[in-house]
Amino acid sequence: MQISSNFIPLNRELYLLKERWNPSQIGFQIDSHTHESFPNVDYAEIAIFNVPEYEGTENISSFSDCKVRDSLYRLYFEGLPKIVDLGTLNLISSRKENFDIIMEVCADLIEKGIIPLIIGGGQDISYAIYKAYAFLEKNITFCSVDSTFDIGLKDDKLKSSSYLSKILSHKPNHLFNFINIGYQSFFVKPEEIKLLEELNFELNRLGKIKGKIHEIEPLFRNTDFLSFDMSCVRSSSFLSNVYSTPNGFDGEEVCKIARYAGISDKISSFGIFEYNQNLDKLNQGSQLIAQMLWYFIEGFKSRKNELNPNTDNCIKYTVAFEDQHTEIEFYKSQTSGRWWMGVPFKNPETNNFNNYFVACSYDDYQYANKGQLPKRWIKTYNRFL
Fold it and tell me: How many domains does the chain have?
C-alpha cells in the first residue's frame, strides 16, 4: 500500500513556511505532508493524522482543517522525537471502505513500530483500529477512557455508542483484555457492568480514578491501544462535545493521563475522539487536545524500554498465601522503580507453566501482603482458564 495516496496535504498557507515557527516550536520540527512532499514515514517514531469521519456520532465538524493541528504546532518542545504529520485522511463515499483504509494505514504503521496518533471523528473509529491489530494477528489489551462502555443494543449499527459490541463479537477474537477508565455509574446499565465483569475485564469508576490517578500508570503498561472519548471531560473544562456533562475529568487530569500513556512501553496506538470543532469558538478545546498530545509525546520521550520486567535487574518478592498453594511473585525494577506480578499460565507448546507478567503498583504488593489476592491478578488468571 502506498500510504501517501490516502492523505490530503495540509493547508499551504498555514503549514508550508517553516519561517512561521520558532525553531523550538513543534511546527518547525515536525515533518509534515505538504503539497510539495510527503514525509519519510520509514524513519518516524510517531505518525499523526486526523480522520474527519462523523457518520456514527453527533459531534460533526464542518471545518476543512483540524484546529488541533494549529494549536499543537504552536507549542514548544525541546528535542522532539521523530514525528511525521500525514495530514487528513482522504475519505470516500463508502463508510466500510473508509474503515478499511483506517485499518490498513494503522496496521502498516504498527507493523513498522510507528505509533499512530489519530484525531477523530467518532469513537467508533476505534473499531477500525482494533481490526488493524486483528489483521496483524496480534492479541491486545484495549483501553477506553470514557464515561460509558458504548456497548449499545444488539441490532445497533456501528456508531460511537455501540462500537464496543462490534469489537467483542469480532471473529476471530483478538481481544485479550478490555480496560475502562472513568465510567460513571448513572450512565451505564447494571447488566453491562455484570457482562464485562463476567468476562474478567477491568472497569474503573471515575471516583476511584480521581482519588488515585497514579493508579492509571500500570493500567497503561498493560495496554496496546488507547482510545480517549473527550466526552469524559467535564463540560467546565471542555465544551467542544455535544455529549459533555457536568462531571468528569478536568484538563489537568487528562494531561496526566496522556503522559502516563506516553510513558507506557506497550501502547502502540492512541486515538482522541469526539472533538466538535463547530462548538470550539474560543479554541479552548483544540488547545486542550494539543496539550494532551504534547504530554503523550513528552511521556514517550521518557520511555524506559521495559515492556516486560528484566528479571535480572529486578528485586523479586514472593508472597505466599494461607491456603499454602498460592504464591505471587512480584518484581520491582531497579531502574524505574515500577512493579510487575507474575500470573501463572500453561504454555500449550511446552505444556509447562510460565509467568505472564502484569504491570501493577506498590499498592497491589501491599494488598497481597495483607492476605488478599489483587483483583487484576485474579482477572488475568481467570482469562487464561
Answer: 2
What is the Cβ-side half-sphere exposure of residue 48, based on CA atoms within 13 angstroms? Answer: 27
Residue 343 φ then ψ, to 5°: -115, 115
Taking Cα atoms as reference points, which of 68, 70, 26 lies closest to residue 286? 68
Cβ atoms of 142 and 223 within 8 Å: the answer is yes
pTM over 0.70: yes
Cα 195 to the center of its chain, rounded Å: 22
Helix ranges, the chain (H): 12-15, 26-29, 67-73, 95-111, 125-135, 163-169, 190-198, 206-211, 216-221, 251-263, 284-301, 362-369, 375-383
Q: What is the pLDDT of residues 92-131, one digit of tens each?
A: 989 999 999 999 999 999 999 999 999 999 999 999 999 9
Residues 245 and 288 in one domain: yes
- On whether both 207 and 346 belong to a single domain, the answer is no
d(CA 143, CA 228): 8
Residue showing cell 500510504:
3
What is the residue type of 185? S
Residues of the chain with confidence (pLDDT) below 70: 1, 16-17
One domain for residues 215 and 291 = yes
H or E element, residue 341? strand 339-346
Torsions phi, psi for 195 (to 5 deg) = -60, -50
Residue 173 lies in a domain: yes
Alpha-carbon span 131 to 108, nearest angstrom: 12
Domain end marker among 246, 267, 301:
301
**Domain span holding position 57:** 3-301
